[in-house]
Amino acid sequence: MSLASPLIGAVQLALVVLGGPLLLGLMRVVRSRLEGRDGPPVSQPWRDIAKLARKQRTRPSESSWIFAAAPLVLVATAATVAVLAPLVTLAPPLAGSTDFIAVIFVLLVGSVALALAALDTGTAFGGMGASRALTIGALVEPALLVAVLALSLPLHSTNLIAIVANGSRHVSTLLGPSHLLALGSFIVVILAESGRLPVDNPSTHLELTMIYEALILEYSGPDLAAVTLGESMRLAIWLGLFVNLVAPVGIAANAHALAVVVGLVALSLKVAVVGIAIAIFEVTTAKLRLFRLPELLAGGFILALLGVVTGAVMR
Amino acid sequence: MVYWLFLAPLVAGLVALLTPWRPAVAWLGATSAAVVLVLGVGFAVRIERSGPVGSGVLRVDALAAFLVIVIGSVSLLATVRSVSYLTDEVRTGRSTLRHAALYSTLVQGFIAAMVLAVVANNLGVLWVAIEATTVVTTFLVGHHRTPAALEASWKYIIICSVGIAVAFLGTAVLYLAGVHAHVANPLDFTTLAAHAALLNAPVVRLAFTLLVLGYGTKAGLVPLFSWLPDAHGQAPAPVSALMSGVLLSVALSAILRLRVIAVGALGPTFPRVLLLAIGITTLVVAAAMLLAQRDLKRLLAYSTMEHMGIMTVAAGVGGPLALAGVLLHILGHGLVKGVLFLDAGEVLRLEGTTRIARLGGLLARRPALGAILALGLAGLLGLPPFSIFVSELTMLRAEAGAGLWWVAAIVLGVLAIILAAILAHARTMLLGASETSTSSPASFVAPLGVALGAAVWFGLVAWPLAHLLSLAAGVVA
Amino acid sequence: MTTFANALGSAAVLVTVGAVVVLWRHRLRSIVAALAVQGVALAATAALLGVHEHDRGLLVVAGLVLLVKAAVIPGLLARVVAATPGARESDPLVNVPASLVVAGLLTLGAFVAARPIVALVGGPTGKLVPLGLATVLIGFFTMVARRRAMSQVVGLLLVDNGIALVAFLVTSGVPVIVELGSTLDVLFGVVVLRVLLARLSALGFSDLDQLRSLHD
């Protein structure tokens, strides 16, 4: 039985929306266990979101519609990518036009919206957070684009679905040095983009060091719920894309119902594994000082560049 | 047959290593250098009669024989001087007996490595030999174990290792070109030169550039020359004499041999442009450093760089005349520079400094040292009747004869600047009054006098080297 | 793309990545570790070529490279580094992000410079020559852009490893004796450097960076 492509989109969206907060909860559990604490249950982020959604909303008196719109933009961009990206299957809606660069920019629109909203509050922390977040963003972007270039070299195409499909058909592509370097760069980018250690400490509330937390300091109630949901969806999407580029095992090649179910399970497992790995890494690593960040991201950039050169050389 | 060349340094080195040091050990070292010289002459005579000796990896042709003679003569000068140098070092407690023994051993290893480099007919052996000179001389440069000496030897080994690494890359790339042209023995100089036209031109271009940069480092050519003044300034005087007098020329001779292959594969233009560019830049840099120099030993070091530049320019022009000039220049420069470094070493021992400004009145205070310095500098500047005058004139004539007037003009212009600079420094050092006047022992003056005499002899009459020179120039013309 | 080409490419890339990591990291200990990894990758390259071309000599060279460049030399350097725990390249002449950008440019430059060789050799091996050349250039850059004496030695070894990589790739049959000679020579050079360092510490200098007396 083949599923209609809007239905597939809905399945992917549901998985990302439901799974995103659970992924965040899973990573927190792993971290707490490794640090010797019991920690909250895996479902805690969902409970937080539910609790926040019921609370009263307060907004800074000086803020404009930008502040109000940003959480929605964040969730909407993440939802768009969740529908269109090759997460569970290689046959999501509009498969022919899922450009890798477009996907990345849709995701980045969410980041920029948050940064603008933080500026919009007019507070010192908001401004500081926005400046830091945009600095990182500016450094992430070249690395990301060059990594995409490296990944797209074998096919001469930046169609994300084609790239993932090529990987699932020709395993040797996945083991090529160019591909591996690009993915190495991709890891650095994901850690930076989703505000994980060593770039940003997601559990800090220390003013001097926080980046992401400073951005969303003024949000409360349903707004904060939306922001939390949006961020967890983005993390799930980044990791989902990453695992499918590394090992497109189990991804549904067509829209057949059974294949989609297998793809669903495979994706959940793979993302959970990577999430746990990141959590373990975060426990063992310290946050980099802000002025050392360019070094890390320049390293990501150079890895991607080496990937492009190698890919071009070995062709 | 060729292996006899290494016997004497080997024996003298082993004796120095295994027996407690005493002056006789140093005399044995001098004897070994004399043996190398005599063997070089023997090879030369034989080659003039019946052509190159040996085949395969080691081969003595006219060029190799000539260079062995140069190595032998400058080594003889330096090792004879080493006897009293080491005796004095040991007597004053500046060196322990162990250090003196190490010095004697390393000098023999140094001589053997240079001889190996000039008789090697194989790119790999040449590379190993030149690398060996670096390793050996690093310790000789740091012989005094002062912080400055160790800094100089550090700089020396780091920079020269880079150079030698680049030369290895060039060797591998040239080998690659040989393999792809199906040359029977792609590391063999004679084979490569004979089949040069078959080699892939772009690859040879890359290889030759790398090799010139790499061996050029050891020859004191730009861009990697900054080790040279430090190492020459800090090394013991006889070691400076050996390095400046022959080691740099040995590295240059490797470039001369490689040029033949490059010309065969690429035609004359590319090697000429490369060598002219590097040679002229070296010359100009050396002139600039000479102008503002404040130390006698560093002055001599930069002057060596200048002469390497002159020879590289002439090698770039090419042709039998230019190369005969280069080879005669190697000999004349080796003798004169050896004498000057030994003299500067004695100045350092007696005066406690080689700062030019503090040496004023040297001619009055120490007439023999001052006179040798004056004569040596005159020889270095190419004043007649020294052989450097003849060789520089020959090279300039060859440059003009090849239609490269502008090259000759640049070289002459820079030489004029250097003449003025060195004369000004010489005036500061030599002239001036002094209340005391100390003579030097004949044992110091005599060998240096003989060497200067030889440099004049080859300037006035080419006998008995004329035929060998033209044969040797023919090898790399 | 065959498995051989992929494996060879990965090993060669790892050599270049090792050079980049040297520029990237500050702690001398990490820098020496990167050098050791590079040695392993270099040995792997030689071993892969040896297996692929059924060349016993190359396998011997691979073993020697593994011993010298992945164990002995990093070991010697590690002992020097251990003498000053926590030693860092804290204030390089060119800061890290700029260095990495330069490394990228050098890689592109190597790509251009190696074209005649790639054209001549071709095949999966010849194509990787730019990576070796890039390592050489990054090594040179490390020597000029870093202050610490140890970093300069590492830069020199990067140059050497890059050259060894090129030599393996272009002429998988360079006479084994020449390869042996060059590897041993490098070992010899490092021993000399260590002796120099020991003599310096005997004079009371903790490292070479305090020596800045010779200049014009």
Structure description:
The complex is a heterotrimer of chains A (315), B (477) and C (216). Chain A has 315 residues and is mainly alpha-helical. Chain A has one domain. Chain A has helices spanning 5-34, 44-54, 65-84, 100-120, 124-152, 160-169, 171-175, 177-193, 212-215, 221-246, 257-284, 293-314. The longest helix of chain A has 30 residues, at 5-34. Chain A is globular, with a radius of gyration of 19 Å. With 477 residues, chain B is mostly helical. Chain B folds into 3 domains: 1-121; 123-267, no CATH class; 268-477, no CATH class. In chain B, helix 2 runs antiparallel to helix 3, helix 2 (23-50) runs parallel beside helix 4 (97-119) and helix 10 (237-266) packs parallel to helix 12 (296-317). The radius of gyration of chain B is 21 Å and the shape is globular. Chain C has 216 residues and is an all-alpha fold. Chain C has one domain (3-210). Chain C is globular and about 55 Å long. The model of chain C has no long low-confidence stretch (mean pLDDT 83). Chains B and C meet through helix 5, helix 6, helix 8 and helix 9 of B and helix 5, helix 7, helix 8 and helix 9 of C.
N-to-C order of helices and strands of chain C: HHHHHHHHH
Structural class of chain C: mainly alpha
Residue stretches of chain C low in confidence (pLDDT < 50, at least 5 long) are none
Number of helices, where a helix is a run of at least 4 consecutive DSSP H or I residues of chain C: 9
Number of strands of chain A: 0
Helix content of chain C: over 70%
- Portion in helices of chain A: over 70%
Count of DSSP-assigned helices of chain A: 12
What's a quick, concise take on this entry?
Chain A is mainly α. Chain A contains twelve helices and no strands. The longest helix of chain A is centred in the N-terminal third of the chain and has 30 residues, at 5-34.
List the keywords.
heterotrimer; B: 477 residues; mainly alpha; 3 domains; C: 9 helices
